[in-house]
Write a structure and sequence with these properties.
single chain, 364 residues, Rossmann fold, OB fold (Dihydrolipoamide Acetyltransferase, E2P), six-stranded mixed beta sheet, five-stranded antiparallel beta sheet, binds adenosine-5'-diphosphate, binds magnesium ion
Amino acid sequence: MNNDLIIEGLTKQFVTSNSVAIADVNITVKEGTFTTLLGPSGCGKSTTLNCVAGLEQPTAGSIRVGDFVMTDTARDLILPPEQRHLGMVFQSYALWPHMKVFDNVAFALKLQKRPSDEIKQRVQESLALVGLEELADRYPFQLSGGQQQRVALARAVVSRPKVLLLDEPLSNLDAKIRESARIWLRGLQQQLGITTVYVTHDQSEAFAMSDMIAVMSMGKLQQYAPPEEIYERPANRFVAEFIGVTSFITGILQNVDGKKATLKLASGELLNIRKENKSDYVWKEGEQTAVAIRSERVEVLTEGASERENTVKAQITTRTYLGSKWQYTVETSGGSLRLESTDAIQGDSLFMYLPPDSIILLAG
Ligand SMILES: Nc1ncnc2c1ncn2[C@@H]1O[C@H](COP(=O)(O)OP(=O)(O)O)[C@@H](O)[C@H]1O
Ligand SMILES: [Mg+2]
């Protein structure tokens, strides 16, 4: 039996609220891997994590690690947090201010009435793991934010949990420390081989750390895939926009033929598009469709090479000098795009070549 964390049909409706906080969330986190719940504030990330932790009771759904069932609303089974064998770190760290670092980390083991030798040894191990063995006698207020966050992590792993839950643990650190903390935290997770669910609204953090990313919006899971797949093949316009794709072109689908089709823009210009490995996508002849454009792959043609396939004419609406390059906002007959080029383009218009891998199909 493996120890994958399996979340099925998870739904939470707060009694004080009309809308559901999360609806039918299904996520499997493979044993030893790192999954990030990514989405804007209020999309249901913390609610999902808190249901796994046992801090919230879901309206429906089940949560288990291997065959260890922690929540199953169909059977009225909801284990309290302390019986779940999980470690958790919050954004606020939630250290006990009146306890020294050692006692903060030792707290759960003391509750379990472990022998004091064992407690001492395991607390020291945990503090060594986070590089704080020298600071065991300090109080939290005597530590930097980054050090407090490490204490919280030592406390979360000291009981050797099966699953580690992290809710925006780095967001109180300043930008410079945050970047090194991500690398450090990911390294620690891999060293421990601990199944981890991480919550953030920061897409670069999610991309840098995760084996799998679960993109959420308004309580619903939008896409659950490895970072490369989220980047290369965002499932829909929400996911594309959330990961920073800002350019879309709308047209009418024509010549639909298996894995190929043509998008006809209002100007009559034609874009050849391909399905690649997105086989679940259903094309409808004559339907109005928007495709996302990965603008860093678009080639700006300074000469008017309009005969070339997938070349579209655009009017320049803004130009911004960024030092090493220029950024342009351009208007096509199918929508506006943002482009960058090292060339200072003269005149009011340009031609762009859109290679097949710059065009992303969106499912919805
Ligand atoms: N205790 C609560 N009572 C009522 N509504 C809540 C409560 N906690 C969260 N919500 C609502 O549930 C939704 C999801 O919240 P949350 O999971 O905290 O989002 P996130 O962590 O992604 O920012 C939001 O609309 C939020 O207002
Ligand atoms: Mg939250």
